[in-house]
Amino acid sequence: MHGLGHLSHPAAAAAMNMPSGLPHPGLVAAAAHHGAAAAAAAAAAGQVAAASAAAAVVGAAGLASICDSDTDPRELEAFAERFKQRRIKLGVTQADVGSALANLKIPGVGSLSQSTICRFESLTLSHNNMIALKPILQAWLEEAEGAQREKMNKPELFNGGEKKRKRTSIAAPEKRSLEAYFAVQPRPSSEKIAAIAEKLDLKKNVVRVWFCNQRQKQKRMKFSATY
DNA sequence: ATGCATGAGTA
DNA sequence: ACTCATGCATA
């Protein structure tokens, strides 16, 4: 219901889909989308992209490593932990941080959900996503600690007769089967998906999305070796 | 904290 | 039809 402008940026757009499989990309790719939150990621991605571009210029052809501390997994991990620690010290919840980001008047930066803050702290986001969010959360942390006496508010009360989204739950047996299929073929064809769906008596779309989410999981910082 | 889902951007 | 960032709903 609330509208924060959308942004379009060639830099981020040009590096959207990563060439999975080849020598790991030290590039920054991030996408913008979703309402207000979209703008946030967009801005962050833009900044990082610019920085990477500058550093990339050095490596002519053969080299492709970015020794930037901001992209170093260890640095991110350390920051995430420090962040959580200090956040708790401030007596602020993950949800609070998320909404407070909007009050931080960074151009194009809106609010984020409790889910995203949680995932940032637990490193269960993609490496690129972590890099994009770090500067934003760091800015919030500094401001929050600086004005530790201020008050925070988030009077967002709006309601109507909106239909609640239902979360379909896949039973354990079916889930095990899916995992088995995934181990053999992480990217089944549409036909294969249809077959699996029928066999497990699940909607084809549910199966398709399950595979998509499973692939994303593998790319999360915490479990991916492809930093 | 995490499962299933959406939507923009890309190919 | 996929990837990727992100979120609602829920355990």
UniProtKB/TrEMBL annotation:
Q: Which GO terms describe its cellular component?
A: nucleus
| GO-annotated molecular function | DNA-binding transcription factor activity, RNA polymerase II-specific; RNA polymerase II cis-regulatory region sequence-specific DNA binding
Stretches assigned to the Homeobox domain: 161-221
Location within or outside the cell: Nucleus
InterPro entries in UniProt: HD, Homeobox_CS, Homeodomain-like_sf, Lambda_DNA-bd_dom_sf, POU, POU_dom, POU_domain_TF
Give the principal location in a single coarse category.
Answer: nucleus
- Tell me, which GO biological process terms does this entry list? positive regulation of transcription by RNA polymerase II
Domain named POU-specific: residues: 68-145
Keywords attached to this Swiss-Prot or TrEMBL record, sorted alphabetically, are: DNA-binding, Homeobox, Nucleus, Transcription, Transcription regulation
Q: Which residues does UniProt assign to DNA binding?
A: 163-222
Q: Which domain of life is it from?
A: Eukaryota
- To which protein family does this belong? Belongs to the POU transcription factor family.
Descriptive protein name:
POU domain protein
The lineage is:
Eukaryota, Metazoa, Chordata, Craniata, Vertebrata
